[in-house]
Design brief:
The chain is α/β, with parallel strands linked by helices. It has two domains: about 140 residues, Response regulator (Rossmann fold, 3-Layer(aba) Sandwich); about 60 residues, Arc Repressor Mutant, subunit A, CATH 1.10.10. Helices cover about 50% and strands about 15% of the residues. Strands 2-1-3-6-7 form a five-stranded parallel β-sheet, sandwiched between helices. The longest helix has 15 residues. It comes from Chryseobacterium geocarposphaerae.
């Protein structure tokens, strides 16, 4: 009589801090399931690991030295549509969780949580394929009435978005004014309004927002 097949669950732990990865490894050892663990400390390693291995659950940080994981979620899902993604990060859940879920993540978990909550989140990801915290559930309900929670660019008018995209393309006030046939101080005024609405302070943040929300 042949022994029953034992299914191996493949995890990918992607975080640039080895202590975080090690902490999750210790946690998974208590799950009493046959598993294999792959690790990545930057976006390039993350992409390569997903490409090379049939990952069941990827536990991924938001920020890496070489970029933001938000920008590659769509690519990861195209590579492995069946793979579940849990964002495990220190960034503010109330500000960012909906953006990551909207971009393709299946769960969002704050590193500020207690170990018990972290374990519960991972178990829910394994059992149901998603983890939505009470806070994010409330945000999802609010987002029906306020789309800006998912895509902050929706707060901009058509002209503001047009100018924001020009800034993101590398154009300056003078060039934008010339292209739109308006005064340069008008462009400066719109720029200030854009920054106020998006709650950002510089062009680097603006470029990141546009890249991640279009």
């Amino acid at each position: 009589m042949n022994p029953p097949d034992i299914t191996t669950t493949r995890f990918l732990l992607a975080d640039d801090h080895s202590l975080i990865r090690q902490g999750i490894i210790f946690l998974l050892e208590d799950f009493e399931l046959e598993h294999e663990i792959f690790q990545a400390s930057n976006l390039q390693q993350l992409l390569e690991s997903v490409k090379m291995n049939s990952i069941d659950l990827a536990i991924i940080d938001a920020h890496f030295p070489d970029g933001n994981s938000l920008s590659i979620l769509e690519e990861l899902k195209k590579m492995r549509p069946e793979m579940k993604i849990l964002i495990f990060t220190g960034i503010d859940e109330s500000t960012y969780s909906l953006r990551y879920l909207n971009a393709g993540a299946d769960g969002f978990l704050s590193k500020m949580n207690e170990e018990e909550e972290i374990e519960q989140a991972i178990r829910k990801m394994l059992d149901f394929g998603e983890y939505i915290s009470p806070l994010t559930q409330a945000l999802l309900k609010s987002s029906i009435k306020n789309p800006q929670l998912i895509n902050p660019l929706s707060a901009l008018t058509e002209r503001e978005l047009q100018i924001a995209e020009m800034y993101a393309e590398g154009l300056g006030n003078l060039e934008i004014a010339g292209k739109l046939d308006v005064k340069q101080n008008t462009v400066s005024t719109v720029k200030k309004r854009i920054f106020d609405k998006l709650e950002i302070e510089n062009l680097v943040e603006l470029i990141e927002l546009i890249k991640n929300n279009q």
